[in-house]
Each structure stands twice: as C-alpha cells, then as structure tokens.
Design goal:
Two copies of one chain form a homodimer. With 793 residues, chain A is mainly alpha-helical. Chain A has 28 helices and 14 strands. Chain A has a three-stranded antiparallel beta sheet. In chain A, a hairpin with a 7-residue loop joins β8 and β9. In chain A, α4 packs parallel to α11, α11 crosses α12 and α12 runs antiparallel to α21. Chain A starts with a helix and ends in an 11-residue tail after the last helix. The N terminus of chain A is likely disordered. The interface between A and B is large, with 99 and 101 residues. Chains A, B: It is a multi-pass membrane protein.
Chain lengths: 793, 793
Amino acid sequence: KHTCSLSSYQFLSSPIVSHSIDSKCRCKAEWRPNNSPKLLDLLDDTVPGIGTYEDFNTIDWVREKSKDRDRHREITNKSKQSTVALLFSISDAFSGWLLMLLIGLMSGALAGGIDIAAHWMTDLKEGVCLNGFWFNHEHCCWASNETTFQERDKCPQWKSWILLFPVCVLQGPGLYVVNYFMYMCWALLFAFLAVILVRAFAPYACGSGIPEIKTILSGFIIRGYLGKWTLIIKTITLVLAVSSGLSLGKEGPLVHVACCCANVLCHFFTKYRRNEAKRREVLSAASAVGVSVAFGAPIGGVLFSLEEVSYYFPLKTLWRSFFAALVAAFTLRSINPFGNSRLVLFYVEFHTPWHLLELIPFVLLGIFGGLWGAFFIRANIAWCRLRKNTCLGHYPVLEVVVVTLLTAFLAFPIEYTRMSSSELISELFNDCGLLDSSKLCCYTSNSGSASGSVNATAANGLGARLVGPDLYTAMWQLALALLLKMIFTVVTFGMKVPSGLFIPSMAVGAIAGRLLGVCMEQLAIRHHEGDIFRGWCSPGADCITPGLYAMVGAAACLGGVTRMTVSLVVIMFELTGGLEYIVPLMAAAMTSKWVADALGRESIYEAHIRLNGYPFLEAKEEFRHKTLATDVMQPRRGDPLLSVLTESRMTVEEVERLIADTTYSGFPVVISQQSPRLVGFVLRRDLVISLENARRNQEGVVSMSPILFTECDPPMSPSAPPAVKLRSILDLSPFTVTVHTPMEIVVDIFRKLGLRQCLVIQNGRLLGIITKKDILKHMAQMANRDPDSILFN
Amino acid sequence: KHTCSLSSYQFLSSPIVSHSIDSKCRCKAEWRPNNSPKLLDLLDDTVPGIGTYEDFNTIDWVREKSKDRDRHREITNKSKQSTVALLFSISDAFSGWLLMLLIGLMSGALAGGIDIAAHWMTDLKEGVCLNGFWFNHEHCCWASNETTFQERDKCPQWKSWILLFPVCVLQGPGLYVVNYFMYMCWALLFAFLAVILVRAFAPYACGSGIPEIKTILSGFIIRGYLGKWTLIIKTITLVLAVSSGLSLGKEGPLVHVACCCANVLCHFFTKYRRNEAKRREVLSAASAVGVSVAFGAPIGGVLFSLEEVSYYFPLKTLWRSFFAALVAAFTLRSINPFGNSRLVLFYVEFHTPWHLLELIPFVLLGIFGGLWGAFFIRANIAWCRLRKNTCLGHYPVLEVVVVTLLTAFLAFPIEYTRMSSSELISELFNDCGLLDSSKLCCYTSNSGSASGSVNATAANGLGARLVGPDLYTAMWQLALALLLKMIFTVVTFGMKVPSGLFIPSMAVGAIAGRLLGVCMEQLAIRHHEGDIFRGWCSPGADCITPGLYAMVGAAACLGGVTRMTVSLVVIMFELTGGLEYIVPLMAAAMTSKWVADALGRESIYEAHIRLNGYPFLEAKEEFRHKTLATDVMQPRRGDPLLSVLTESRMTVEEVERLIADTTYSGFPVVISQQSPRLVGFVLRRDLVISLENARRNQEGVVSMSPILFTECDPPMSPSAPPAVKLRSILDLSPFTVTVHTPMEIVVDIFRKLGLRQCLVIQNGRLLGIITKKDILKHMAQMANRDPDSILFN
C-alpha cells in the first residue's frame, strides 16, 4: 500500500507523462473496474440527500444530465438480463410520451373549465338565467325559443339582478344605477375572494408566473412554486380575477397552471421526479401547452416556449411539446368552451385582400405598439417598485379592492370596458358582416340602402360605408376605453391576484388599430378619387378592413410588451389561418420590437425578473464587454484567499470549521496549500451530509480523523483514527477556464452548459472561482445597476 | 526589463496567489491597456491570412464568435465619435436584414424560374404548343378558346411531336410507339446534358446537397460547394434532371440552391464574408428559405432548418430565417409558377372529417413509411457503396444514361409514372370532386346516377361510391407504379445529377396511402352495416377520403426516410391549412419514426454523411458510453509524447522542424518540458504564416532566433539574435478538461460550444489533446465501425 501511494504521489509531481494515469498507480484497480468517475456513483446514493438541492439554489445541469445518462445506461444494461427489466426499460422509454399525454389532457380540461367558469361568472355580474343559474347569458338565450336571430343576446329568460325582485320596479336611470351597483358589488366580491384565497393558501399563485417560470427553467429551484396548492388556488382565483372585470387576462396564468400540472404529474414518474434537468424539459413542454390552450395555437405555443420561456430546449423536447400542445388543444376543443367548435379564441375571416400601401398604417401601428410596450414596462416597473418600497406593499388586499372598485366604477358606463376584454377583442377583430348588429358596424350607405346593418360585400354594388351616428359614439367610447385600459393595465399587472397581460395588451392594440382602421376607411371612401387611393379603391368598393387593423394593432402592442417575434406572428397566423396576413403582422411586430428595443432592451418578463432579483442568465442578449475572467473571479483583490480543501491533509474538525465559517456552496480540492493544483470540486451540501453520515455511521470517526479525497490511502500510523474517504462525492471533472479567458466566452459557457460554478486557473494553478451569481453581479455592474440586487428576495 | 521578467517568472512558480496577475508583473502594462487577450487582436491582422481556415478544415466557433463580438464592439465604440461612423454602425446593424431580403428575393425568383422551366420541359417531352413553343401544355390550352371545361387538357393547339410532320400519318399503335420513342429521346437528352454539365463545370452540383450543407453548417469548410458556379450549374441541371423524368425531386436541391444564393450574396457584406460563424447563421436561414420555396411552407421551412439542418441556431437567426422564408414565399407567389395563385405545391381541401377508428390504417401507413424508410436507406447506401468501391463509379455518365433509359422505358406505358411526380402526388392527394375527370375518381354509383364522375358530396344522397372498371385499372397501375418508384428511387438518389428525395418518397407514400384509402372506402361501403362501421358510416354517405390517406402516407414515407418530425407535420399542415388533419399526420409520422429508428438510427442524410466520411458531430443522438477523456486523448499509450512548444526556450529552427515533422493543426504551449503546465494554444496555420512573415519582414531573424510566447522578454545577451514575439497569435484561453471527465460531457462541450480541440489536464499538468476527429473516431469505434472512415474523401 505504501508503494502504491508513493508512486501515486511521485506521478503527480513528475514531468509530462502520458498514460501514467493507468500505468503507474496499482491501486487504481480500486475504481477502474466500473470505468467511470465517482461523480456518476451518486446514482446508487447510499447516503440520502446527496445530489439534491436546497431551496433557492441553482442546479448544475451537467451533473443532472450525467445522472440521467447513467440511469439510462443502467436500465439498458439490465434490460438485456431479464424480460421484466426489458419491459421496464420499454415503459421507461415511453413514460415521457405518457406524461405528455397526461399533461395535455389535464391542462386542456382545466383550461376548458376555466373558460366556462369565467364566462359564466362574468355574466353573473349582470344577471342570472331563469332556466338554470348555471347557464351563461349566451347559453341561456340559445336554450330559449323566443330569441330572434337579430337579437341573439336578448331573451326573457335572462334577467338582470334587479328584475328578480318584483317589489322594486325601477325604470330608466334608477334601473341603471341599481345594475351599476350590483355590477360593482359582484366585481368587488370576486376580486376580494381572489386576493384572500391567494394570501391565505398560495402566495405564489399571484401574478402571471411567466418570469418565475423562466427563472425556474433556467435552473433555479423555488419549492412550491409549481406545487398542487398553487395549482388549485391559481385555477380558482384566476376565474375570480378574470370575472371581476379587472384589466387582466388569463393567458399568462394558464402557462403557470399548465406548468403546475406538469410538475404535479412528474411526481408519478421516477425519471422526472428525481432529475431536475429532465423535469425542466417537461416544464418547457408544459409552457407550450399553456399557450396552446390559451389561444388554441399549438405551433405558436411550441415556438413561444422555444423563443420566450425555455432555457434548454433539445429537439426531443420540441417534438414532445408539440405532441402535448396538440393533445391539449384537442381536449379543449372537445370541451368546446366557446360553443362554436372553433379551437381558437378569436376566429376571424377577412374578405378583402390588403394593399401594399396599407403597410404605412401598419408600420404606424407597429410604432404605436413599440411605444406602448416601452411605456408600459417603465410605468409598470415604476409602480411595482413603488409598491415594494413604500407602505403600499403592506396592504395588498386593500390595493386590489381599491383598484377593482375604480375599474368597475369607470368601466361600467362604457360599453367596451364593461364587456370582458376577450369579447372586446373579438368584436374589434370582426369584419362587419351582413347581419352584424354591433355598433362598430353601423355604417350609413350613401347609395340609399337601409342604414343600420349594411352589406359588407360592398363590391356587389351596395355602396360605400360612411360612418353613421352610432359608429361616431362607438369611436368616442373606444378612445376613452383605450385610455382607461392603458392606465388600469399598468396598475393591475403585479397585484396579488393572478394576472396576465396578453389580453389587456392585445385589447389596447386592437382598439388603437380599429380606430386607425375606421379612419383609413373613411379617408379612402371620401378621397377615392385622390392620387393615393385611385389605383386601389374603386368607388363604392370596400377596400379597407378595420378588423385587420385591429388584429395588426393587437400584435404590435403584444409584441412591444413581450418582445415576442416569430411566436407572436405564428399565434396570430393560427388565429386567422391565412398566410395572406402574415406580412402586415410581421411588419407591425418587427417595427414594434425595434421601436421598443430602442427605448429599453428588456421585455416585461425580464424587467420583472430583474425587479425581483432572480438569478436569471439571459440567453438572448450577448455579453459585449471586454472584461476577463480574472476581473470577475472570487476572491477579489484584497479579499482573503480562496477557501480550499486539500486532498489528504485535513481533519474532520478543520473541514467542519471551514464549513461553519463560510457560506460558499462548494469548495475546490487541491493537492496542497503549497501546490494549489486542482484535483476536484466538492459541494457543501454533499460534504455536510457525508460528514454527518460518517460521524453517525462510521465507527471510530473523531474530530482528528483525516479526510481523504485521494484514490489510495497515504501511509498512516496504526494508532491514528480511521480516515473518512470522500472521493465518491468529489467531482473529478470541474470546469475550468484560464484567467485570460474573456468574460464573453465564460458567459457563453455558463449559458450553454448550464454551469453553476467554474474554477479559474493560471498555468495549472488554481486562482479563483466564478459562480453564476458572480457573473450576474458583474453583468449588473457593467450595465451600471446595483450588483447587490441579484439575490432572490 | 530583467526585473520584470524575473518577477513574472517568480509569480508563475509561486504558490496560490490571487490577483497576482495584475499586481506582480509590471510589464503587464504592455498589453493591459486594451484589456483583451491577444486572441482578439486578430481583428487588425497585419499579417494576412491569420485567423482564416484552409479547405476541408473545421472552424473554431468560439474564435469566430469572439472575432465578431470584437468587430461589433469596435463599430459601437467608433459610432460614438462621428456621424459617418454612426451611420455605418446603423447600416451594419441592418445589413443582416437586407441580406435576408435579398436571399428571399433571389431564391424565390430562382425557384419560380425552375418551376416554370421544369414544367415546360416536362411537357416538351410529349409535344409542343403551336401558339408559341414557350407555353407548356396547360398554358397552351388555357390560351385556346376551343377547350371545354370538361377536357381542360385537350386542345388542338397542343400537338404531340409526331403530328408536326404531316408526312407520317400514323394511327393507333404506330403513333404510340413514335411518341414513346420521342419521350425516351427527350428524357435521354435532358439527363445526358445534366450529367455532362455537372461533370464539366461543377462537380459539387450533384446530389441533394443536404448532407454536405449539414456538415458545412456544423463548421466544416468545403470551398466552392456553395459557389457561384455550383449555383448556376445546379439551377440549370436541376431543371434538366427533373424534366428527364428520373425518379427525383427538386426540393432538396432547392435548399442547396438557396444556400448558394446566400453564400454568393454574403460576399457583398464584409460582416458575413469575413466571419465563418456569421456566414453559417445566414446559411441556416437560407436552408429555411429553400424549403419555404419548395413547398410554399415558410413556418415548416424554419422548423426544418431548426430540426434537421442547423447546428447553431440562435433566436436571432430564427427571426431572420422566418423573414427570409416569408419574402421568398411571397416572391414565388408573385411569380405564380403554378398558375393558380396558391403558395403551396399541393393544395388540398377535404370535406369529410376523419373518424377515430381511422387511426388504425393511419398507423399502418406509418409502419409502412418506417419500413420503407429503413429499406430505402439500407438499399441506397448499399448501392452507393457499390458505386464507390467498384468500377461502376468510373462511368457516372453511362450510369445516368442507362438509368434514364430504363426509367423512361418502364415509365411511359403507365400513366402514373409517365406524369411528373409532383403531378402524381397532386392527383393522389385530390379529393374526388364533382367535375373530376381523373381515373381515380371513376366510381360507379349504386343509386343509379350517371357513372363516370359522380358527385363527391354523397352525403346529399347521391349514393355510395363503388369502384368502377377504370378505377380498377388505375389501382393496378398504381400498384405497379409503386414498385417502379421504389426501385428507381433507390438507384437514382446519389447519381451525379441534382436529385432530391422528398418528392419521390412522398410519391411512394401517396400511392400506398391512396391504395389503402380506396380499399378502406370500399370496405366501408360494402360493410356499412358491420360492427365497425355502423356508428360512423351511414349507408350512402361518403365517410372515407382516400386523398387524406395519400397525404398521411406521403408524410409517413417522407418521415421514415428523413426522420423529420415537427417540421414534417408543419409542412403538411401548411399544405392543407387545417388543424383537423394534424392528428392523423402526427400519428403516422410518429409511428414511422419509431419503426424506422428501431431498424436503424440514421436518417438518409446522416447515412450519406457517414458514407462520405464528413466530420460531422451529430447533435441529436446522445453519447451513451462510459469512457473517459483519458481513453480518447492523443497521444495514446505507447505513442510518442505530445508535441508541445515551450513558452520561451525554443528557436525558430526547432519550431520549424516540429512543424515539418508533424501534421497537427495546432500545438499547446507549456512553460517548459519539465513543468508541462499549460500557457496557451497556437494554431499551425497561424504559426507558419507568422514565421514566414518574421523571416521575410523582421530584421535579423535567423534560425537560432528564440521564439517567445511570454508577456515580457527574458534576460538575453546583447549579441543574441532578435527574438520573434508570437504572443499575439497565442490563444491564452484554450479549453481544458481533466483526464477524469466522462466522454459524454466532453462530447457535449464540443457540440454546444463548437470546439475544434480541447486539452486534457491532470492536476494542472498537460497530458494530451482531444480533437473533433478523435471524438468522431472514438464514436465510430464504440459503434463498431471503422474509425478510419472519418476523413473527408
């Protein structure tokens, strides 16, 4: 044994020797048979807890993926031995698909339930159905025989609340006031319930959840954020919040709900329960499912997950996400919550093609969208910061109540703010058809046909569509609604209720777009002899579709806020189903992104991640500074030396003291303090658990017992206490960079490999360490921000 | 100077010292001001050639990206100084978009031209238009007034060749024989021209090009593969090859053509001309463009590029690819080569929804597709290997001629092989409409209405569709066509003409699908009272769409051959435009992939990459073996020691001898042979160029001049020859792994960071090197293949 260790040491200090690794040290046979580094032995962890993470910690992707590959290898090897193991191996291979199927089914069902419930409760604010209180307004009148096609939403079965009490027979203004009051009461009740439930049972259920999901997907651990309580409470409170009439949407939270489903379902599959990296693949797919059910756009959902949310998105996940998104979309469609057997939320069909010159107003809408995005992000972040730093933050319930009251108070008088945002968008997107009774379609025809509803296929000769008096009113109301929506969306996003901003943003854009569209239309009709319109608008023809403008505006505003690009266009494309309108959508989305990026690089999600100080390493933006690894590594100039462990010369007591004195989450192991050449890296958590385990279970371990990370035991006197051998928890292949490595490359390595820390070497000597937090702090510093904000709080 | 160097050396051999890097060595001021490693100085390369690559070499992605970031930084810094520089910086930022626009326009125009030319020349084999020889059959008859709607493709202006010569008035069989002969003559002429042109001007223009593009995108350099000659010749010969009636498609080669366009256009933009990594981003976008124009499916094209072709696909490229793909699709549509203002190649609209039970035949089609894929890959690779290893490979022209003759000879008698593959697919996909005159729609109605063409909307009560005698003939012909297509596709793919296999694969699948579809249809009609069909097929109703089966079969076969998944489904989805049929398509594509994967892991492209020995590191499949870096690194056990340079003790002569004696493409630089601690890495090409440059331009450099890689000069006698300082070409941050690093992690690092080599360290000492080729050889070895096949040949 003595010889062995001597030759081993001799080797370590010998000049360049190739292959000495397996030729010199005889006791290498100890570990050589399994031919793998000890890192992989964590699989059969006899000591429980080794290889897991604490809350609010970052995972090590490389380690997790190694663990999974090892598990897979073991299963493959065993499968050759027995039929049972073979069956197990097959079931293991298909468990991923089964999980996706379950996630799709569950998310689709939940989304359908949320849609139906929200629809019903929104209508409940106005009245109740006499045929059965569980019918919403639309279903109530469908069931009725007395409804004419013209007035689909008026039927005797649907009673507004006040009419239920025959005592108070109110008329005109009185009736209006009581309805107003009832509307506010219901809104208040819903919002209050929502915020109370969130506060009481699941504080993580508030907000949209996308910033946190991005952080979790990048490898952070927030226990309970995707748990079953969050799922239940978020589902319930989402319905309440949407029904309360606040300026928020259910699309973002649906992503959170789908991720909760995925996380809960992961617990039934060992493969995914035990491995943080594998679970994140599933969560990436789940966020695709969320968007798929929110908009009925499976391809858009997958691209959203790829572009906006995911951090690690291998091709296998792409394929599985797509499968899950499709299953979810089909589940939702068979539930048929909108009652029209359409998969999509806003189905539109336009009849008139667009003209190349219309790109100018579309680009204008893009600019508006970009400005709105930049304004919204600044205003919302300022408001959230105010909430965080002043006493406002101590009264979340009061805040919700006040905002709800104000919203309801101001929203009720205007038709377009009273209706739910999705209905509003639906109406704005709509091309005025033959039988459309909406005020937005109240054109007067100048060819003398009946006013009110005019044939939209004006090309048939029914005359041009001039604005009628009702449309004038509608336009003013829309302008007012635009203003209100903008203000309330800023204030609402970030409150302690589930709140998404897809729908409010789209509503803002759709209103702006529709307004511009109607203006353009009137311009074209009145100046169809002008130079611009001559070649394109024949008199009496209907050459501009205001609904298309609304759609382009919605895309522009959503793009400005979220900075989505391809996924946005694809979602919009899936809404309309025609390649025709991709170019207008893309022109607007591109302009919007450029304008918004010029005013501030961050999307709303990234701004919230930064506001909350999550340790998120943005994969999109390149690190462009000229710093080197030596400028970032710890310890900094003047700090005490790097805390290291040595391979063989430390005692249990010394190590325990080091652990107690420092808070680092890992320690490099070197040959000796005098010769700081790197041997490996050991994680604090593993070290603590192993030492406790040794103290408890290994006989004769005392404070003076030496700790050995070496392959073979050094010579020792027989009276010495037994050594604690910890090579099994040592990572023998830590990542290293040299001091001269540019930070841009270091950042790239961290992003692409998902590292947690990296050691800094110069000419073979260990000089320092760079962790993910060091990088984030450095990036904050380079951007002139407070580096200490990078902490979870 | 002496002091400085002393302290520098002292530092290098001192124990752990943090920050010594900028505190100890005074002469650090020499390089500190620009605060960057010398690697980045390559930008202002005074020595031309440094930082470029030789042909058939692998690029270093990290270096290329560093170069680009540096360039960007420089432009940004300058832009703050003057308005001109600011404008330049803006134009630089938008040059990427401009390039995408140009690629889209050029590829769209070329694709349109190819479509029109191929269509015309295919018809030329049969006859000519009297109104003008440049009309194809369809256009010729459109222009004619004497065409009835029923017989759109018969008009007096279109003459088959023989009728042009009034002397020989042939009838019946004689006419047929002469037409047969003319058909074969034209086919032979086209194929002969194609192969001669390819042989004479651009040998790289043959084949589909996708395997090579995959290799190039992964970082390999093949000069001329994407050059202007390849572009011109490939465009021309593609038209010839398609028109010759060989069993090949133009879709794969269109990807190559689009990439050539991109590469040629890159030469006009310094940013992309100079940087291999940036150029590869553009090429990724170009392959999306290729698929976009081939199928009229921009989203599918982007996903194809992402899933199948690209190696490095950042989000920015996603967005740009999408833009370019859209521009190309719109350019193509405005050229309108199909004359129907449809963007897509095979526009279909089905009227009957599918039933859940139909998933069983769809899965059967998937199994067929998988079997076909596996068979095709094996047979084609065996055939190509035969061509490579026997004298067959010496007569490529003869091979093409013989195959063309055989194809034409066997194809002419059968209607479905005589027509071009795209027309065939179109006809097979088609739902039998009211006015369809195709033989495939010759049903006899059992309710007594006129036979021939029967109303497809049988739900109206026009009765069920039984197979008529014409349809029986058609079925037999189709079965024969299936067999012929299968054999000829195997033989054709890989010949020295441009040849894609998308269309032939789809044709095989479509035929099989249509056959199965018709069988199912008849089964349903005859057994509509049976247990299976009762709940679903009411008597007289038309509940099965054979066209849908053809589409599903096409997707399955294409999936089996290429192993595409999401992109395949999305392309098919864009062809139909309905979410309805995604589930059948996905079921078939999934089954097909699983079946094919069970029989062989490689797609046809990967198989061809391996056949040709390209150094391609597959990103999809995980490396699952338990080897360590030490098992793979060079030098192997028993080999001579690693060739290294030392920091300061080598002379010009020694280095030149080392260069002459070895063929390595780079050398590690260590402190000294006795203390092999890594300083950096220098590339052979850079070293050779620098030494030549020093010999030529630096005064007093002789063979005994020392070569210095150190920061500051060591003490030297005044009489010594002047030193050659080469620190500027030294990469101070080479990537390192430890000997214990599992190969799975090493492979992951190579893939994700795009490395070219990586040094292997143990406890601070350099032990070996791993290059991309070592990894590929090792992987081949682990898969029991010949490791020496990994070489470009």
